[in-house]
């Protein structure tokens, strides 16, 4: 039994071994780019709309609405980042039910990279929204004594973000494999259906948590400043 | 028993206890959270969207500890670092 798609080598190019993680990551990326490019080539403002356009508009609208509700800020700056995370994780999780496809999110390397992207996006959005000085000051609030704990919290939540997605995707594929060996009649299909549901749920949860982290980094002093000027 | 057998026994027993305790405790916590969320939705159906979204995020947070236990159990069974130490 393979624990992670890192151990599967699809093919080798010279000294570089292309693992299943790398291969399927690029496959998912190519799928997303090609489908989006094909659909957005024929965008229309008036009916009749193409089916693809309706699907993409519904997706973008859903992501925009969720960002607005979670962050309570203007959703547009966050749309590219959150939407990319959501679509990539969603497609890789859902395609995991296709036989032979190993979800790249079932590898700690992929989820770690995504979590590091979130870790870096927090100061990036914070600085671009508040400016460097005001962003750095959020680390010293409410008191400089809390600085080590704030830094520790940022690191540990990044690790938790990576471990959560990795553990869930890997466990669902592993449970399917174990059931296939133990009770290969109906139960694997049921667990795959469960895996489909949890895949969508965890794509959503990863995105919402990333948004919560990014938005809290970008909004903290703003709320404080508003309260201070009001009172 | 040889040292290797002791490592195997300890790893397997610990992996089982880890998975059982991790799953059980997390399930208790998630059950409480879900029950409270359902009660809140019954009292305030208008806020069902916000409550269920917050519940899902909270459940994911709680589940993280169970996932940690699961990963530790898997490491003990499939990638035990102590195999190399004794053999």
Describe the model.
- The complex is a heterodimer of chains A (231) and B (87).
- Chain A is mainly α and 231 residues long.
- Chain A has one domain.
- Helices cover 73% and strands 4% of the residues of chain A.
- Chain A has seven helices and two strands, in the order ββααααααα.
- In chain A, strands 1-2 form a two-stranded antiparallel sheet.
- In chain A, strand 1 and strand 2 (16-19) form a beta hairpin.
- Chain A is globular, with a radius of gyration of 21 Å.
- The mean pLDDT of chain A is 84.
- With 87 residues, chain B is mainly alpha-helical.
- Chain B has a single domain, classed as F1F0 ATP synthase subunit C (F1FO ATP Synthase).
- Chain B is 87% helix and 0% strand.
- Chain B contains three helices and no strands.
- Chain B is rod-shaped and about 65 Å long.
- The mean pLDDT of chain B is 88.
- Chain B starts with a helix and ends with a helix.
- Chain A binds chain B through residues 1, 3, 69-70, 160, 163-164, 166-168, 171, 201-202, 204-205, 208-209, 212, and chain B through 49-50, 53, 56-57, 60, 63-64, 67-68, 70-71, 74, 78-79.
- Work out the largest interface and the residue count of each chain: A-B, 18 and 15 residues
Q: Care to count the β-strands of chain A?
A: 2
Strand content of chain B: under 5%
Please outline the major beta sheet of chain B. Answer: none
Q: Given the helix and strand composition of chain B, which structural class is it?
A: mainly alpha
Given the C-alpha coordinates, what overall shape of chain A results? globular
Number of separate strands of chain B: 0
Overall 3D form of chain B: rod-shaped
CATH class of chain B, anyone?
Answer: Mainly Alpha
- CATH homologous superfamily title of chain B: F1F0 ATP synthase subunit C
Oligomer description: heterodimer
Helical proportion of chain B, percent range: over 70%
